[in-house]
Amino acid sequence: MTDRPIAPDARPPHPAPDATPDLSSRNPDWWRQAVVYQVYPRSFADADGDGLGDLRGVTRRLTHLATLGVDALWLSPFYPSELADGGYDVADPRDVDPRLGTLDDFDALVREAHRLGLKVIVDIVPNHTSHRHVWFQEALRAGPGSPARDRYVFRDGRGERGELPPTDWQSVFGGSAWQRVPDGQWYLHLFAAEQPDLDWGHRDVRDDHRATLRFWSDRGVDGFRIDVAHALAKDLSEPLRDLGAHASGGEAALADFPPGTHPFYDRDEVHEIYRDWRKILDAYSPPRTAVAEAWVPDARRALYARPDELGQAFNFEYLQTPWDAAALRQVITGSLATAHAAGASATWVLSNHDVIRHATRLVLPPGTDDNAWLLSGGHAPAVDPDAGLRRACAATLLMLALPGSAYVYQGEELGLPEVADLPTEVLQDPIWEQTGHVRKGRDGCRVPLPWTTTGPSYGFGAAGAWLPQPPAFAAYAVEAQDGVEGSTLELYRTALRLRRKLLDGESLTWAEETPAGVLQFDRGDGWRCVTNLSPDPVTLPAGEVLLTSAPLQDGRLGPDTTAWLGH
What we know:
Layout: E1 35-39, H1 55-60, H2 62-68, E2 72-75, H3 103-115, E3 119-124, H4 134-142, E4 154-155, E5 178-180, E6 186-188, H5 203-218, E7 223-226, H6 270-281, E8 289-292, H7 298-304, E9 311-313, H8 316-320, H9 325-342, E10 347-349, H10 358-361, H11 370-375, H12 385-401, E11 405-409, H13 430-434, H14 478-481, H15 488-502, E12 508-510, E13 518-523, E14 527-532, E15 544-548, E16 561-566
Parallel strand pairs: 1-2, 1-11, 2-3, 3-7, 7-8, 8-9, 10-11
Antiparallel strand pairs: 4-6, 5-6, 12-13, 13-14, 14-16, 15-16
């Protein structure tokens, strides 16, 4: 790991957990500029030693989040699931997977989080259920034409004996989006075959999700992250239409359809669902928050973020933008304008459970095929971990200086790189099998966290971990970085403490006269951010240096470095 000394006057002692600023109902807009920490429960902490992270493990480690300085934690799915898609195949949306705990464990987690001043956000997975859900099992038993099948999308096949799928629609995970059942009918699954899509035209489906929102809100949940928010509404009028050249399971083909008219992505009717949900969320005091995972173009994303719908939507353009000053400025400017037009605040994210960790991704050469790189075990091309960590820290300080809310993925505060060399025999992501071993999948960013420098799973649990951790993880462990000047963990802690002191307002002003490759903007609340994406050191503008992501070079800002300055 590379040492990154930071401004010594910006390093106060670690705050006690109860020093976290008030996030109560007196500030119902807490979410607009919050820092939200994503917890992938199965990879966060294992309290019972079975190798799988659990809710009690999360609760025991909540002080880590409080001292880190985040405002909220977002729990990826912890519901009963066979893990056909990392927990996003939900068998019961109003319970806890027994391997991860109980509802009492969940209640204890919420109580402790609130005691520490942390809000709690949970995932809602409304597009599909697990094939083990009681509804789907009932549908299979009931047979073709039964009311039980109407909650899902069952259709007869094409061909003389119905042996062909009803349409050419493709799954996001590869292959046909249709699966045949023994009685001859087919059901739709835009993701894994174990994730049958629901028919959102059915009253039972709508009523059940209303009940789910109330169930978790009544248990003290502060907000919801909506999985695949753009896919609920579908054009299921007969005959179902083929997509031909646009049949890919991804969202790229959206641009080939007039806005709101794709058969199953980003249809205009989906917004009626979220307007209905907003009435439920607003009935609580304070109102429950929501954020959409919607892989749609920028202008369409704003619709999901309207105040009478979900309120926020993830900004994936930012995550996908290369490490280039002009490209980043364009995306930041556009994202802020889009959020402002919707009456929302912008969202920023660099890593999550679905993408290569940004400490690695940001130094992959332009044009690198991510999947080919993963299949090479991370060797073609080779990645310099020190260069990647330097760039990741600069990107983090840039992100945290932007107006809006930032989403931090577990382990990025430790500087964790992607684990690209996982042996194929340990892979868990269904993408690997469903694509016939063509796409390696997302396991490399889901490897369990290291908490200590020794032990069978580096403090993750008393035994091993469900995905193997590389020996290099010992150097990234919380124990190895806690209180160590220049560590990534201490950089995050300092940045988040400073951000709370400096943050006010939701706008920025770009500096127009800057060296090539440099991003510089002022926040109206009295601070300035400068990021050097060029290959050469640059002179800093006037101001007190509050924090840097790497040491200054003879008083100048080196390449791949961000500085925060006071006016």
